[in-house]
Amino acid sequence: xxxxxxxxxxxxxxxxxxxxxxxxxxxxxxxxxxxxxxxxxxxxxxxxxxxxxxxxxxxxxxxxxxxxxxxxxxxxxxxxxxxxxxxxxxxxxxxxxxxxxxxxxxxxxxxxxxxxxxxxxxxxxxxxxxxxxxxxxxxxxxxxxxxxxxxxxxxxxxxxxxxxxxxxxxxxxxxxxxxxxxxxxxxxxxxxxxxxxxxxxxxxxxxxxxxxxxxxxxxxxxxxxxxxxxxxxxxxxxxxxxxxxxxxxxxxxxxxxxxxxxxxxxxxxxxxxxxxxxxx
Length: 280
Ligand code: ATR
Hints:
Oligomer: single chain
Structural class: alpha/beta
Helix content: 25-40%
Strand content: 15-25%
CATH architecture of the largest domain: 3-Layer(aba) Sandwich
Shape: globular
Radius of gyration: 19 Å
Number of domains: 2
Bound molecules: 2'-monophosphoadenosine-5'-diphosphate
């Protein structure tokens, strides 16, 4: 591709970012769709986030993604926040519009899109969500919009699960979520939103020891490794699984749609997915 002064520049800020797959997925998508855009990952030290955001704005970037540990700092630098991002209390995508920083959170919608792309739906289903952090808030709010029968939240710190259930119920206007200590037997979906199982500590499995039934769908948001210890365990029990790569792809596509203020073609999913599969 040819980079010219007209090329839109976007990227990722985080620390560290060396292993991020986002540049590979995004740049492959842009080239395949003929979008005059380029994506780069920037390793920004925690005390430089404000300066980096000001720099991206001054340089005319179209927008940027934000990853750990900068989500909170960036949230406090925004000029405008999308309603869903405000409910979730975190942003992962910033659009720079007329010199203003506009914050969005595409994690939840990315997760739902990955479920649909795999042929799954949580509508009218009993959902268990493991974890109650930032990712869980985004996914919990988006799952609640799909009208599940219930959302059971299990977390190491019970009070956080309780608080998230309250947030979801408050947003929904009825009691759809509750905190729990064990996975109920009649669960349809189990969604891991914690980092357990993530490289380099790949042995972590938040459902170890549970007897699973083969009708269950087990989803992980961890994508490195792609087949986590939890997903292997679920497959051994005959469950269908959904890995974390889908959410990375889904939130990436949603970010591009926000930056360009347009809907991308249906091929976008396959294009990013192919880039992810081909990447060594
Ligand atoms: P993120 O933004 O990625 O969701 P976070 O807000 O720090 O990150 O939340 C991490 C989640 O993973 C939390 O639910 C955390 O549990 P606590 O609320 O008890 O801290 C959970 N988590 C992290 N490490 C864990 C571990 N070793 N075992 C169980 N849960 C863990």
